């Protein structure tokens, strides 16, 4: 060997490589930028734009005069049917929607990946877990959500306060009812992966199952998990708005993007901008997260990295 | 046991035996019907007994589907054996508990057939080679890295490649990575499961020479599985010829290639081309008729009786046992009697 230690780079951390590749994916960068802007908008924005999103002018005449205003200096995004400021409502609603979307997605992906890996890797668990998955797939979701909301809303509200309780109820309900697709896809991938020779090689080394899953199986099923995760966020935001619309989610005066969308839908003929704002916000979130997921998936795959 | 007089034979060789296989059976169950009932078995390996001595290379040859790879994997207990024992250094690995088996793993390693599939595409070369070290040693990361570099030197890989991923390498280089991984824990016994089958001829020679050098350097014992008879002749000290899950003939290399005794070994070796054109012109090939019977339903009597050119009535009735017919040569055939 040459005596040139300087030429030998230390094994780099994989994450450095991932970041380098991620940066080269333009869509992912734009997505990340948009997503970060949205997050700043909803979480930092209320500190700058300090109007109360639930403020209804107590003076009936003023209230009626400020109803359904088009965008102006005073109300940059206009007002709703009760004269509340849309910009403030968009910010406040975004906080809830993004938080619900991310949390519900994390719950559903964690659950789905866990069930999928267990079912695919351990033959003994396969049948039981997949029948459980079928069971959940066969359940009509909306009635199930209604029952869950009815049963657990009061105790949760008591324990965590009305907002916290509802938040918890909604993310858990959405997470528990949307993990099945991820589980099935992951199981299929794991089944195929288990027959690959490098898993056999790891067995011949004596790698125990736990590390086998963490080191060899999970990194190789990253792609379908990423796809499921990015689609899951959109689904969670939409499901939350459907729940709120049915009166099972957050209280009616509590803004979320889905709520604003449904409220605005009644007036779509006269005031289309009332639907456009939350619609654009939801679409941007979903799209940016999709692009981030796409970039991450490419960046995590060493075969694509560096092309 | 495979020899006629076990006491004499074992006393002569027991000190040098590294691997002792007795009556190894590996059946894969067949489930059919609505209730997935167990209706039969694929008898991939059906009663194998042989020994591998310290420092030797035992070649295992046979046609596709005769159970060669299954033997290799069963020897490392990558499959749960149906029956039989595999004693490596005095411990029967077929009966070890999972934790004891894990601790035993460093003594026995494997080099795989497909160099593309046997490396995790998401791990760097350094991570792949140091995985056995992570599992079985408590070295610091700097020591591990040093060991990885040493191994890369030993198999002829540039140290600068440590950060690359498997897809960036050629087949031969990948096979070197696989070999380095197998060597990481200083094993005594390595199963080479067709390590050269997926490589170019020019690279095959490199890899086989590397394996030979490493054997000399580290005192390794190989089970070399291959269907390439010329390559086995080059590397093996003794050769076992398998047919349909059983050993047909187990002989030292030179006598086997000079004068095969079992009719199947004769047919198999007659297919090896000779580099000398004059001898090649007069080479008589024995062409076997028919197909290999299904291992789920092997014929009664000798497994080879359906295709054997020298078949006699007893072959259809009685399964011939592997017996020592000449010193060191074991043949399972009714026609070949001890001298």
Largest interface: A-B, 30 and 40 residues
Strand content of chain A: under 5%
The largest β sheet of chain A comes out as: none
Cα shape of chain B: globular
Pattern of helices and strands of chain B? HEEEHEEHEHHHEHEHEEHHHEE
Structural class of chain A: mainly alpha
| Gyration radius over CA of chain B | 21 Å
Radius of gyration based on Cα positions of chain A: 24 Å
Oligomer: heterodimer
Question: Segments of chain A where pLDDT lies below 50 for 5+ residues?
Answer: 1-7
What percentage of the residues of chain B does DSSP assign to strands (E)?
15-25%
The largest β sheet of chain B comes out as: 8 strands, mixed
The number of distinct structural domains of chain A comes to 1
Distance between the termini of chain B: 20 Å
> Could you tell me the number of beta strands of chain A?
0
Name the average pLDDT of chain B. Answer: 87
The total count of strands of chain B amounts to 12
CATH superfamily of chain A: MetI-like
Question: How does CATH name the architecture of chain A?
Answer: Orthogonal Bundle
Q: What is the fold-level CATH name, i.e. the topology of chain A?
A: MetI-like fold
């Amino acid at each position: 060997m040459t005596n040139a230690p300087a030429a030998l780079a230390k094994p780099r951390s994989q994450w450095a490589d991932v970041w380098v590749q991620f940066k080269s994916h333009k869509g992912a960068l734009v997505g990340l930028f948009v997503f970060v802007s949205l997050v700043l908008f909803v979480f930092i924005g209320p500190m700058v734009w300090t109007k109360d999103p639930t403020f209804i002018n107590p003076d009936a005449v003023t209230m009626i005069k400020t109803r359904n205003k088009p965008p102006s200096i005073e109300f940059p995004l206009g007002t709703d049917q009760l004269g509340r400021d849309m910009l403030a409502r968009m910010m406040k609603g975004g906080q809830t929607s993004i938080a619900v979307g991310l949390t519900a997605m994390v719950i559903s992906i964690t659950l789905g990946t866990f069930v999928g890996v267990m079912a695919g890797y351990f033959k003994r668990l396969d049948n039981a877990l997949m029948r459980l998955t079928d069971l959940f797939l066969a359940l009509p979701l909306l009635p199930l959500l209604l029952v869950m909301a009815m049963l657990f809303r009061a105790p949760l509200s008591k324990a965590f306060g009305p907002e916290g309780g509802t938040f918890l109820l909604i993310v858990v309900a959405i997470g528990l009812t949307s993990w099945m697709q991820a589980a099935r896809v992951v199981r299929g991938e794991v089944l195929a992966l288990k027959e690959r020779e490098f898993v056999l090689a790891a067995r011949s080394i004596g790698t125990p199952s736990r590390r086998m899953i963490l080191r060899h199986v999970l990194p190789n099923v990253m792609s379908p998990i990423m796809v499921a995760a990015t689609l899951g966020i959109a689904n969670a935001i939409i499901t939350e708005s459907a729940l709120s619309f049915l009166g099972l989610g957050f209280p009616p005066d509590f803004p979320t993007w889905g709520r604003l969308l449904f409220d605005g839908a009644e007036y779509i003929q006269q005031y289309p901008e009332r639907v456009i704002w939350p619609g654009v916000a939801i679409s941007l979130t979903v799209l940016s997260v999709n692009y981030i997921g796409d970039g991450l998936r490419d960046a995590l795959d060493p075969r694509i990295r560096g092309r | 046991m495979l020899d006629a007089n076990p006491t004499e034979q074992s006393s002569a060789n027991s000190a040098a035996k590294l691997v002792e296989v007795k009556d190894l059976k590996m059946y894969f169950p067949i489930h059919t019907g609505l209730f997935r009932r167990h209706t039969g078995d694929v008898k991939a390996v059906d009663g194998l007994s042989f020994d591998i001595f310290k420092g030797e290379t035992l070649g295992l040859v046979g046609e596709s589907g005769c159970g060669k790879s299954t033997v290799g994997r069963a020897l490392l207990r990558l499959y749960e054996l149906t029956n039989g024992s595999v004693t490596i250094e005095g411990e029967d690995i077929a009966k070890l508990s999972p934790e004891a088996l894990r601790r035993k793993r460093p003594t026995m390693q494997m080099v795989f057939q497909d160099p593309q599939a046997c490396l995790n595409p998401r791990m760097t070369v350094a991570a792949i080679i140091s995985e056995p070290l992570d599992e079985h040693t408590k070295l610091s990361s700097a020591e591990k890295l040093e060991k990885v570099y040493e191994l890369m030197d030993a198999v002829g890989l540039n140290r600068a490649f440590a950060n690359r991923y498997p897809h960036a390498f050629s087949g031969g280089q990948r096979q070197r990575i696989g070999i380095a991984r197998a060597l990481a824990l200083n094993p005594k016994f390595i199963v080479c499961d067709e390590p050269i089958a997926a490589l170019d001829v020019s690279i095959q020679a490199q890899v086989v020479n590397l394996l030979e050098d490493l054997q000399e350097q580290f005192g390794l014992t190989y089970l070399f599985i291959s269907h390439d008879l010329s390559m086995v002749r080059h590397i093996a000290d003794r050769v076992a010829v398998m047919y349909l899950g059983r050993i047909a003939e187990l002989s030292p290399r030179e006598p086997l290639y000079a004068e095969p005794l079992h009719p199947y070994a004769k047919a198999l070796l007659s297919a090896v081309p000779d580099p000398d054109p004059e001898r090649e012109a007069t080479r008589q090939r024995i062409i076997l008729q028919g197909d290999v019977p299904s291992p789920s339903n092997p014929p009664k009597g000798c497994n080879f009786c359906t295709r054997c050119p020298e078949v006699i009535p007893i072959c259809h009735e009685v399964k011939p046992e592997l017996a020592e017919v000449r010193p060191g040569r074991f043949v399972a055939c009714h026609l070949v009697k001890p001298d």
